[in-house]
From TrEMBL:
Localization per record: Cytoplasm
Family, per entry: Belongs to the EPSP synthase family.
Full protein name: 3-phosphoshikimate 1-carboxyvinyltransferase
Quaternary organization: Monomer.
Taxonomy of the source species: Bacteria, Pseudomonadati, Bacteroidota, Flavobacteriia, Flavobacteriales
Length: 409
């Protein structure tokens, strides 16, 4: 489905939106719930990725296809590796079959797991013969994806002696590792992260409890972008959010102050408000702790005529698409002057934007969602707009609610 986005008349927006639960918290809790039946989950994500995770966990078939869901692929690898007596082939979309998994597979094999590659070495599909693993220490490279580490941490408490992980190299996406550890702590599982060592103690049974998933902060980023490009006085209320978030992308509240957007924390909601015009000429920021909001920030900078130097982006090359190349190609079509390296993006100041450009989305939900706010400036076409459901089912509905007109073309 291709769509044309337009805003007929810029008006001061004043809307309330409820966003579904965090897909990262949800996919962790779904694994944990299967290991500890004492857990009840509230405000679970309705994203495709969480649906894939639920299907995988309840499936009895040998082959399990998790589509584009990176967390499902990585977290289920450890989950099935220690599920004695079960043999599965974990596979995914064509892109998933080109997203690396060898670092995690090697760590699991070091612990005693039995995993082999069905096609290309280092990539899904993988065959996993579930068995009891007995080792309790492992080393793993921390600079490619934090999901490998979270994956090991999620099963750690169910191992006979718990698990001690030594992280090698520079650690990327640290807040996602901390999210995993915080959830374990919240459940009553003892875990510590000191220097480059993480330790999780074994735990057989936990207290019966309900865990409430906070709404998704990465999804909130698109509203930050909309408010940044709106008239002074515009405000959008988003639920259900809290100040003490487990999600690293809550750094948005701080980052968007540079675009004149303030965040007020209420009881279970936030209000984003455009307070003033941005006086910033160049935004310099390292996003190694928040890679999923890089596309949103680059597009907001372009919309606002602000140049930016974004660093810490090495993981973007192995996400749903090569996000650095995709940003370069699509922003260039709109008139941007942009350069990318393997880990950074440099956008020049530009005050002109081409109208009616068709933005390719490369099977990447965040390409579609990050470019949508540009409709506040010029009519823009989004190709294969349905990709958004990977993380955000009612994205286009919510865009309409904040005044963006949508026409299927
Ligand atoms: O653990 C998680 O829930 C995630 C970790 C991050 O991946 P990397 O650690 O691969 O950067 C992030 O990009 C992804 O959307 C979700
Ligand atoms: C990178 C992402 O997801 P995953 O790696 O879980 O597919 C994302 O949602 O931006």
């Amino acid at each position: 489905m291709d769509i044309l986005l337009n805003v007929l008349e810029q008006q001061k927006i004043n809307e309330e939106i409820t966003i579904s639960g965090s897909k990262s918290e949800s996919n962790r809790l779904l694994i944990l719930q299967n290991l500890f039946s004492e857990i009840t989950i509230d405000n679970l994500s309705d994203s495709d990725d969480a649906v894939h995770m639920q299907h995988a966990l309840s499936s009895n078939t040998e082959t399990i296809d998790i589509g584009h869901a990176g967390t499902a692929m990585r977290f289920l690898t450890s989950y099935f590796a220690v599920k004695s007596g079960r043999e599965v082939v974990l596979t995914g979309s064509e892109r998933m079959q080109n997203r690396p998994i060898e670092i995690l597979v090697n760590a699991l094999k070091d612990l005693g797991a039995e995993i082999s590659y069905e096609e290309k070495v280092g990539y899904p599909p993988i065959r996993i013969k579930g068995k009891k693993v007995t080792k309790e220490t492992v080393q793993i490279n921390g600079n490619v994806s934090s999901q490998y580490i979270s994956s090991l941490l999620l099963i750690a408490a169910k191992l006979e002696k718990g698990l001690e992980i030594e992280l090698l190299g520079e650690i990327t996406s640290i807040p996602y590792i901390q999210m995993t550890l915080s959830l374990l702590n919240q459940l009553g599982i003892e875990a510590s992260f000191v220097g480059n060592k993480i330790k999780v103690l074994s735990k057989k049974i936990i207290k019966k409890q309900t865990v409430i998933v906070e709404s998704d902060w990465s999804s909130a980023s698109y509203f930050y972008s909309i408010v940044a490009s709106s008239e002074i006085g515009t405000s959008i209320q988003l639920s259900a959010y809290k100040k003490e978030s487990l999600q690293g992308d809550s750094c948005l509240a701080e980052i968007y102050t540079h675009f004149g957007v303030t965040t007020v924390f209420g009881q279970n909601f936030i209000i984003l408000k455009k307070e003033q015009k941005s006086r910033l000429e160049t935004l310099e920021i390292d996003l190694k702790n928040a890679p999923d909001i890089a596309q949103t920030i680059a597009v907001t900078c372009f919309a606002e005529g602000i140049s930016c130097n974004l660093s810490g982006l090495h993981t973007l090359k192995i996400k749903e698409t090569d996000r650095l190349e995709a940003l370069k190609d699509e922003l260039t079509k709109l008139g941007a002057v942009i350069e990318v390296t393997n880990k950074s993006l440099h956008l020049g100041r530009s005050f002109d934007m081409h109208a009616n450009i068709a933005i390719k989305t490369y099977n990447d939900h965040r390409m579609a969602m990050a470019f949508a706010p540009l409709a506040l400036k010029v009519p823009i076409k989004i190709l294969n707009a349905e990709v958004v459901t990977k993380s955000y089912q009612k994205f286009w509905e919510d865009m309409q609610q904040v005044g963006i007109q949508i026409e299927v073309v």
